[in-house]
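INPUT
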Amino acid sequence: MSDHSHSAHPPKLEYQPALPIPNGKLCLWLFLSTEIMFFAGLIGAYIVLRFGAAAWPSTHDVHLVELMGAINTAVLIGSSITVVLALEAAKQNNASLAKGWIVLTLALGSIFLGVKAFEYRAKFSHGIYPGLPHSQIYESANVNYAAAVRQRVAELKNPLAAKENRTEEDDAQIQVLDSIAAELDAAEKLLRDKPEAPDGRVALLRLADRIYPRASVHALHDGNMHDELEHLKIEDDQDPLEEEIEKAASAATPVLTLASAETSNADAGHLVGLNDQYPWLQLPIMIPGGNTWASTYFLVTGFHAIHVIVGLIAFGLLCTKTLNAAYSGVIENVGLYWHFVDLVWIFLFPLLYLF
Amino acid sequence: MANLSHDPAHQSFDASDPHSVEHGHGGSIRTYVMVALALVFLTACSYWTYTPFWPFGDNVAIKRTWMMAVSCTKAMLVILFFMHLKWEANWKWVLTVPASMMSLLLVLALVPDVGRRMNYASRERLINSAQQPEREAAGKPGTALRPAEHPVGEKH
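OUTPUT
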């Protein structure tokens, strides 16, 4: 009977994969699809917050160095090519060469992280943090900023004034604090006496500029400026900085700066203020748009750095294996992840450093 | 059902064998090195906008357009050559196109409420923003900042 023959010889079934790739690679690509959306959300949030903001700090206002970003980009591109070369070596069953390329990738990734840590340190040392309690950023030179400066001055001065045997250094510190307090008093008096006029705000802005000079304001006074700024025609008998501060105080939009002018300043465009001159001061600083900038910068670069660390751990684990042809699939999957990390940085570099 | 493989070798693909798929895929080492050099060159092209040798002055629109074009070119090189999508079968579209579209939609969805949040901001809000509105700073309280941009009664 036909029924009997069916049970004796079941049809031969053959497994048909849904996609013509190994399961591991499929999983990795599915993971990368979610990663694309994850970073698109972060970068998209940065873009809309940045271009919808009333004010946004220039690169040098927040101690970013473009050359470092460019070098880091080149380092990450270098690490991408070493992964590809490791994969090719593994495919040819050259385990020692593959391991050499992976070790080099690990080293390049570590250099990237080291440069990033150095950059973070530059922010932290200037009181630029993504949030309280460490952040010292104020958005504008208003009464709240004045109160914060006054509080910090009092915190520093009271213990010094209470000392019985003051040293010369203590006296020098008190002198500095007194000069700041005097300037603060004068500004607040102007705010009280002429609440409708901009004089008080200008005085506060001048103090904020002494504490933390912003490159985007000072770059406008560089003698080697671009021709477009020659129309400013600052008169010789006027203090150009003073005039520009007044201009910034009354401006509805942030003062745009010439990138080329910033690079012509010393120390890659970063200026020395009271906080740099006297590191013990650590006074509140005024950076328009600085808080949103810090939140988005640390969020985006922080998540990218976490991805770099995960990649380095994967490369570290690969270093413990014999990277012959049997491991080429694993190397390819880790490499795909690493190229994606590189891809994210390719967009972050111009957005964070050059825009 | 659409054929997700353009390579006849993939018709008999065995998913349990990790080595059965990759033979014949990928470029030569020379190709990869050339791509890496192109990427470094393009990075220098981005940095060029920041140097005094940039010929278009401080025109932000040109700079940004140039930098985004360079970044997209770099991304394409990485995706096509380093991530091997140039040599992959048609499945690549299934995984990458929906994710890219969702990403684009996510960014666009943020624009009306977040990206354009200051376009119709009230005078009170601008006073407390980072920079003082011009007329307020000039000592003219009560003057609307940009009457055309602030419909009566609209405050955010």
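end of record. Chain A touches chain B through 81 residues (CB under 8 Å).
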